[in-house]
TrEMBL record:
Keywords: ATP-binding, Kinase, Nucleotide-binding, Serine/threonine-protein kinase, Transferase
Protein species of origin: Aramus guarauna (Limpkin)
Domain of life: Eukaryota
UniProt keyword Protein biosynthesis, yes or no: no
Enzyme class: transferase
Protein name per UniProt: Serine/threonine kinase-like domain-containing protein STKLD1
GO MF, one annotated term: protein serine/threonine kinase activity
Assigned EC number: 2.7.11.1
Reactions it catalyzes: L-threonyl-[protein] + ATP = O-phospho-L-threonyl-[protein] + ADP + H(+); L-seryl-[protein] + ATP = O-phospho-L-seryl-[protein] + ADP + H(+)
The keyword Transferase belongs to this UniProt entry's keyword annotation: yes
A Pfam family that the UniProt record links to this protein: TPR_CCP1_N
Length: 313
């Protein structure tokens, strides 16, 4: 009632949000906090100029949404929430703290297909790309933005293809910049896989993207999700281009075949990794030069082992 009565007074809204924050750690208060989402976003949207209110509002939304996910509670995050967050991004595009919070929220929200569709309609991609270019050093921002791009690319609802294509070079730069950070590299590889699956890469991007994915695999072999999605991304590129296939076996840092063998031996007990290695292998055998390299590196031994351990592969 207080927030509704004094909706136009910035200080009143700020105090109310600060008061709500004091209840965040109280588990019994959570069902009530969920009902405040609309009031929080309305306050943020009404007082967009107030950076502190935006930061406090996003922090509170993040706490509420995180608890909802932990407790497996569905929250209705409609277009008003998305509009509010994008308003905050556009008004305070230089504030790294706020952008980090907003990008994390957008990544969490985009897990819902309906929300991903609404994000696409709201034109979020140019905002994400601009944020990444300006804050490429920020691992949290890069991870979140790649997560949103993945959700948009795999969404069944059509997102503007030209906008998705514009995300490819930026995602590649993120991967190049954060190759040694497993979590960020994993997020970027997943986004590149989804973008390649949607046909967003140009012919000129096939070879450098193949090399970049091999580097990611080389530096983060212990991460099963990265291995799975990198294998699928490589399979997608090999399906499209012999140039990508040749780069796969002639990379100056070592053949992709050795990386695949190493990945199998690290994750032989993970059926999904093994399945995706098989998907990649299936694309490899369509090129004679790749097959010759597979034979010279005794790839058939690995395939025989997979066949024995996973008869359905």
């Amino acid at each position: 009632e207080f927030m509704q009565t004094f909706w136009d007074i910035e200080e009143a809204q700020a105090k109310a949000i600060q008061h709500l924050v004091s209840f965040v750690r109280d588990k019994s208060a959570f069902p009530y906090l969920v009902t405040f989402t609309g009031f929080i976003t309305f306050a943020m949207k009404t007082h967009t100029d107030s950076l502190k209110l935006q930061v406090d509002g996003c922090s509170l939304l993040l706490e509420i949404l995180s608890q909802a996910l932990e407790q497996d509670v569905m929250m209705a995050l409609d277009e008003n929430v998305i509009s509010c967050l994008l308003d905050a991004v556009r008004k305070h595009s230089e504030n790294e703290e706020l952008l980090s919070l907003v990008c994390t929220l957008l990544m969490m929200i985009s897990a819902s297909e309906v929300a991903a569709e609404n994000l696409g309609k709201a034109g979020v991609i140019p905002d994400l790309l601009s944020i990444v270019r300006n804050f490429l050093h920020n691992e949290k921002i890069c991870l979140s933005c790649c997560g949103v791009l993945w959700s948009l690319a795999v969404s069944e609802n059509n997102v503007d293809q030209a906008l998705l294509k514009s995300a490819v070079p930026v995602t590649s730069v993120v991967l190049q910049e954060h190759l040694r950070n497993g979590a960020v590299a994993e997020s970027a590889c997943s986004a590149l896989w989804a973008l390649s699956l949607q046909g967003c890469l140009t012919e000129n991007e096939y070879e450098p993207t193949t090399a970049l994915l091999l580097d990611a695999l080389r530096m983060n072999p212990e991460r099963p999700v990265l291995v799975k999605n990198t294998c699928l991304a490589l399979a997608s590129l090999l399906r499209l281009s012999e140039i990508a296939a040749l780069r796969f076996i002639t990379d100056s840092k070592g053949s992709g075949i050795n990386l695949i063998k190493d990945a199998y031996h690290l994750h032989f007990d993970d059926p999904e990794v093994v399945e995706n290695i098989c998907v990649l292998t299936n694309e490899m055998v369509q090129y004679d030069e790749v097959v010759l390299d597979m034979v010279s590196q005794k790839m058939e031994e690995l395939l025989f082992e997979i066949k024995n351990c996973f008869p359905s592969s």
